[in-house]
Amino acid sequence: MQNGTSKLDGINKIPVPHTPVFNLASWASSLTFADLPSEVVGRTKSFYLDWLASAAAGRNHVSVASMVNLTKTQGPMTGKCEIVGFSDLTTSPIFAALVNGASSHVVEQDDLHNSSMMHPATVVFPAALAVAQRVGAHGKDFITACVVGYEFACRFGERLGKSHYSKFHTTATAGIVGAAAAASYLLHHDAATMLSAVGTAGTQAAGLWQFLLDATHSKQVHTAKAASDGVLSAYLADSGLLGPHEILEGKRGMVATLSSGQDSNPSIVDKDLGYQWSVMGSSFKWHASCRHTHPSVDALLSLMEAEGVKAQDISDIEAHTYKSAIEILSLSEKADTVHQSKFSMGFVLAVAAHRGSAKITDFTEEALFEPELRQFQKRVRMVLDEKIENAFPEKWLGKVVVVTKTGQKFEKEVEVVKGDPGWTLTSEELEAKFLSLADYGKINDTPKLSETIERVWHLEDQENMLGYAF
Amino acid sequence: MQNGTSKLDGINKIPVPHTPVFNLASWASSLTFADLPSEVVGRTKSFYLDWLASAAAGRNHVSVASMVNLTKTQGPMTGKCEIVGFSDLTTSPIFAALVNGASSHVVEQDDLHNSSMMHPATVVFPAALAVAQRVGAHGKDFITACVVGYEFACRFGERLGKSHYSKFHTTATAGIVGAAAAASYLLHHDAATMLSAVGTAGTQAAGLWQFLLDATHSKQVHTAKAASDGVLSAYLADSGLLGPHEILEGKRGMVATLSSGQDSNPSIVDKDLGYQWSVMGSSFKWHASCRHTHPSVDALLSLMEAEGVKAQDISDIEAHTYKSAIEILSLSEKADTVHQSKFSMGFVLAVAAHRGSAKITDFTEEALFEPELRQFQKRVRMVLDEKIENAFPEKWLGKVVVVTKTGQKFEKEVEVVKGDPGWTLTSEELEAKFLSLADYGKINDTPKLSETIERVWHLEDQENMLGYAF
Hints:
Chain A is α+β, with helices and mostly antiparallel strands. Chain A contains 21 helices and 8 strands.
């Protein structure tokens, strides 16, 4: 032996236990494109287009500018990895994942996986795209890696559950694990190495809700770092760094430390692998507000149309919802900023009632100063509804009870909102959303955008994953 | 207004509250070298030498190799920032901080700040050195930045307290904040910008103890990422990214989310600024094992010498200690690897009893297979001692009760261990430790090492902070 710590420091003596996470890694590391049902492939492509749209729309945000600046001043200014919306810049995987992870989580239009309460696209796609570009992966492998990333992120999120979500931004904490797994898949890791990548990622899991209280930029920091650090974890594992074997269920792992452990059980992590696909359980966002407001928005719009009620007729609204919604939305209820306004139930319903929609262009600085929106906002109260709470997070139900100025009372409940797995968007709607968000981000090269749509719909035929910077 | 989110998104409307953390940032951002008492300057220089020693000793570890590889393949291969022990490699601040943060936390010889239960040097120095090299800072500014980093790291650690430490690796979670503050100081940030840097750092605070159970490499990942991400947070703040204003005490901040909040009170964060200095409360490590074992090691060695007891005479040892020690050391008690062996009270006392010391060269792969050490290890039990628990973490007391094979019973209590603020190392001992650790890391250029020692003792006269790679 040398004078010093030997390379593996005896760690190879400690056996890797066959936990549900190990089973998931074993399954994932040997998954191939041929194993994927066609609807899984189709839905992954749809989420990729939807993710590109969000990244394009968010590219001008200050959080993105600061990360582009970091890339230019502290990263390599050459490399194979692209940054969406910055066609003159290429870099290494960890920086590309960083910037793309930030930009795709700015405009609140990226997907939401219901039962895990997390946004998988904004962490999984930046990681998978960056590594796919670096290693020259085929479109088929990229798709498969994203499916793997969704499984890890969503299953970890489900296992951590509501008690975790009430304290931590699950998109970041489960997201870093999904990003690591997707990157690990593209690096052709075996199950044990993938377990190291995931373990190193999980011990870095972080992301507090404090930013919601003062509208600062941590939301983008969380997704950027989850994507980038997931990639970093996979590359560290690639060069021999070992992660904890039992990061999820170990005595000092994520469940024991970061959640009550009571919201689910360990078996959820490797249940029905190859039969239940996480990409199939994720929802497209139609409205541009926090996903917790969508059931109430849909219920209100439906009620107003059915009953012929107008915004100015309404004197009081109860938005019946689940506890997690109240916990998160209460933090931003005053809506001092544009971003907070998308997290304020009162303001979002005010916008929906007055505009008839809650689109990205409905949330502006000017809107914050419209007296009728501010007055309407005060008429909205969130109410904890036991039935809705019991169904959450498997179902994100909502109900509104409206009282008009003339004393009429109406109520409307919704079970499925537009964009949910049960009421998904058509390809035409996805394409329209893509073009609208690209326009919002001032990307107006129509032929290039059309060509991108075509390439995404045929992603499994692409020899490589280059050319998505615009 | 533009079509899109405006640059500051209305956040400038939200006033920055004058919390204890804001007071600390105000004080820190206007601190100058002239404000530092000479003993504070002297002690900071000593810790810097001690930190260089740890980084030199740890440079050949697999975790360091994997991060050097990451730097070479994903970072810039040019820059002003050096990596200790790798004189042929320079890069940008976030990569230099990453590698130096890993290497200085390998051999368990870096300092320990008692009342915060964290190791400040391994996170503060890598961050401060990297940024100082990048901006061309004078030795005086480097020293001041390190003092600032210690204040943030240690005060955050104290505030988070024992309940936090039982779940999280405080060196990482408070460390990232200290690293951010040190970097922020060197970037000449005002108080509000430093608050953003610290807020962005705090929302990334992570680091679970799970790695202790299977001896994997997260310990180095935690310090590397804390140092690097602290630097990243300061640079992001520099280009306008806003962090949460109340990351520590906010409703969803670090105290509310990551601790019981009951171990201390908020005033600890800005108490006696300029009078109580955190660098004065940190301890040098003399033994090469987990700091929680040191009181027992010193008590045992002292008892054996005073009573003439030899290792083979001992049939039973009770190591009386505090709860945090039992919680952490229990995770590695089997001592399957060299690293775990330094975290096993039984094994550490076995080594101390047989070797008469617990030096870096006493913990080897061979030692793991010595039957007499393994037999001795089984004779050691940790016992929770109420008096010791009540004094912790302000004082790290220890007591051993030894029963010999002939039935004699001895006990010895220690109040202060070698290296503690009350029994600090002399410059000669620090120099000897430096040379010994450099030798352990196979750095043997004696003139260069002597010259480094001289430069550190005159750090306040150095025009720049270049030249510490060896």
